[in-house]
Amino acid sequence: MDFATIIGVFSGIALFVIAIASDGSIFEFVHYPSILIVMGGTLAGTLINYQLQDILGVLKILRVAFMKKTKDPREIIKILVNLAETARREGLLALEDTAYQMDDEFLKKGTLLIVDGTDPELVRNILETELAFLEDRHKSGQSIFETMGTLAPAFGMIGTLIGLIKMLQNLQNPEAIGPGMAVALITTFYGALMANLIFIPIAGKLKVRSNEEILLKEVMIEGMLSIQAGENPRIIEEKLKAFLSPRIRNALENDKKEQEFGDDE
Predict the structure, then answer these.
(1) How far apart are CA 57 and CA 60, in angstroms?
(2) How far apart are CA 245 and CA 249, in angstroms?
(3) What angle do CA 15, 19, 20 make, to 5 degrees?
(4) Of 231, 232, 192, which is closest to residue 29 (Cα–Cα)?
(5) d(Cα 210, Cα 204) in Å, to the nearest integer?
(6) How many CB atoms lie within 10 A of CB 71?
(7) What pLDDT digit, counting tens, does each position of 153-205 carry?
(8) Which InterPro entries match (predicted)?
(9) Which residues have CB under 8 Å from 119's CB, separation 6+?
(10) Are 31 and 22 spatial neighbours (Cβ–Cβ below 8 Å)?
(11) Non-local CB neighbours of 221 within 8 Å, separated by 6+ positions
(12) If we measure between CA atoms, which residue out of 226, 241, 259, 189 comes closest to residue 20?
């Protein structure tokens, strides 16, 4: 689970509810026609902009934002270094059995390609093409939430205009102007809240997740090509560590030290 996303969404909603309730009733901000205009309008506009199958896949995309799916890059580097040691000791064909036991389809495909003796340039082309299509699919999911983040405030403004028009039609009743104005502004509030607390942050989280996964796959490509080239496992490890942030590099070093210390004991 990605607790940052869950805490962010629920704490954001809770803070707004507490802030509103501390200076009045929360029910003053509940107006069903305004919710219908903003949510219904946003959904309708998104349906027009995308194919139905893309919209139906939103729940699957949401799961990526709320679930921490990306693998630990330290584990991937350890797997690649182990593969390099096996290949150097027993040859590339020895990797075949290990490849069939892998749960990562991208790493499995790359390993089987090098086991089959595929030309290194072709291996790179196949894996980079798959990576490019993966990136396109991720961008499609992000763009749905970016579109919803753009449409929600716009439909909030439309709801406000509808409320103002209805209010101006009843100017003969001055006492109704204040409450009417308040109701009209509620749709703008709903639109801004949904855009800035839900849709735009989720699009941002999906982008972060996508960047993490793409970086991991780039590490895999470089590692597998280095294994195919017969490079020394220690050189491969140092090369792959260059992809990582200093924090993760230090964690990897600490893992090695702990392992060496454990072996000495």
Answers:
(1) 5
(2) 6
(3) 120
(4) 192
(5) 10
(6) 16
(7) 999 999 999 888 888 887 777 777 777 777 788 999 999 999 999 999 999 99
(8) Flag_MotA_CS (IPR000540), MotA-like (IPR047055), MotA_ExbB_proton_chnl (IPR002898)
(9) none
(10) no
(11) 110, 124, 127, 128, 131
(12) 189
- Return the structure tokens found at 180: 């009417």
**DSSP at 29:** G
Q: What angle do CA 143, 149, 155 make, to 5 degrees?
A: 130
Number of residues assigned to the chain: 265
HSE-up of residue 213 (Cα within 13 Å, Cβ side): 23
Question: Which one-letter amino acid corresponds to residue 158?
Answer: I
The pTM assigned to this predicted structure is 0.81
Rounded CA separation 157/231 (Å): 61
Of 37, 42, 71, 38, which is closest to residue 58 (Cα–Cα)?
42
Amino acid making up residue 135: E
Query: Whole-angstrom Cα distance, residue 188 to residue 161?
Result: 10
Cα 178 from Cα 184, distance rounded (Å): 10
Residues 26-55: pLDDT tens digits?
888 888 888 999 999 999 999 999 988 888
